[in-house]
Amino acid sequence: MTKEIKKPSFILAMIPIIVLVGLLFFNVKIYGEDATYGSNQIALIVTTAVASIIGLSLGFKWNHLEGGIVKSITSALPAILILLLIGALAGTWMISGIVPTMIYYGLEILNPKVFLVAACIVSAIVSMATGSSWSTIATVGLALIGVGDALGFSLPMVAGAIISGAYFGDKMSPLSDTTNLAPAMAGTDLFTHIRYMAFTTIPSIVITLIIFLILGFTIETKSDAANVQSILDTIQAKFYISPVLLLVPGIVIFLIVKKVSAVPALLIGTLLGAVAAIIFQPGIIESVSGVQGNYAYASYKTSVDSMFGSISVLEDGNEMQRLLSTRGMEGMMNTIWLIVCAMAFGGVMEACGLLQKITSTVVSIAKSTGSLIATTASTCVFFNATASDQYLAIVVPGRMFADTYRDRGLAPENLSRTLEDSGTVTSVLFPWNTCGAAQSSILHVATGEYWMYCFFNLISPVMTVLFGYLNIKIRRFEPSEIAENKAANLFVDDSL
Questions:
Q1: CA distances from residue 6 to 2, 53, 345, 352 in whole angstroms, order as listed
Q2: Is 326 helix (H, G, I), strand (E, B) or coil?
Q3: Which pTM was predicted?
Q4: Please, are residues 400 and 359 in contact by the beta-carbon 8 Å criterion?
Q5: Which of 96, 114, 340, 358 is exposed most, by the fewest CB atoms within 10 A?
Q6: What is the DSSP letter of 494?
Q7: What separation in angstroms does the CA of 323 have from each of 69, 150, 216, 247, 280?
């Protein structure tokens, strides 16, 4: 006889969340910024076990829960592949002189007073052109973090500027996967979604740029002209610096704009970086490999080493060593471990209905339009924190709220905008989310250190909730649209 599946209560569904929050709190207290290097992974594994025990007590078979884990981790595999390739790309772009060239020209051009604003704007432009915050941060972001470090800025602050700009571009680009996913979940078209999203997104980025401009003119950096010149001299002494090297990132950006998938585009960029190193940086090739007299052997060894392992082109103890070093694929393994553990937790929570119970309870509380939008935004943030994936933070709330918005006479672009204003941008604020884990690894800045400077990501969900409560740009169905939707059986509530 088949065992009956019980429905979880709200309190029961919240137990794994409470345990997770408690463990993460203790981890931060005990391990500080090193919490993501093992202790948070253990916390996620423990809470996965807690959620599994609850699922078994509800009548689910272990095979069902295991299937949820596998499905969830499988959904993260593209992100894991991209992370590995970003590690390899960072390695070959360092030994080829591509990143040093970006840093060199950036130091010559950018004024420290406007650097944070410039970093945000450059990241926004590249991200809008490519439709990818990840690719933007992995390419120009790497160079900008180096420039910021050389200018004496706080690295978390620079990371916040880069991420703010990258996620603005990601949101507003028609090439972005999340920008296409949100209207698909809500039931509207892409360009209506983008136009409607501009009402909240543009004020958010304007406020962000003003904050960074104020910070740039008020904070004191540790650098001076002599220090910057010393960095420029060191880079020029070690590398061949030329605009020709910028052709490689230009090709990668072109491929992404042409909608080439991220994996092949990054692989091509990695291999081109290795080729550029062999052609333009023979001194680096020989010094990193330690091989003399056999350039083919030295080239192969240095290229492969840079893709999978740690590479530094300067001697130990040099104050610029961190600026001119990379960790390759090896440096991404801790992040991948974190992602796998996080997706396992999210998979079990979804498989036994705990996430659905929590969110359905929250939906029942929302009565007004403002509270409905606030509930939607909170649910997206909740899924980013618990399911650890920005796609789930868009898909699940999108499915949950679509009927409710229609039943209340609200056009679907209200929902799609809220999904992006809160689901897309807040994913990078959690260290165990795929986005937060990835960007902290790429920029070498802990999520717990940079999140407070991601002003755009923090302002966006507040802005969309504010628009909801103030009834600004909240489009409602016209009577004719209501009649059409009723005829198509899209409305559940006949009172409309």
A1: 12, 13, 20, 10
A2: strand
A3: 0.71
A4: yes
A5: 114
A6: T
A7: 38, 8, 21, 22, 20
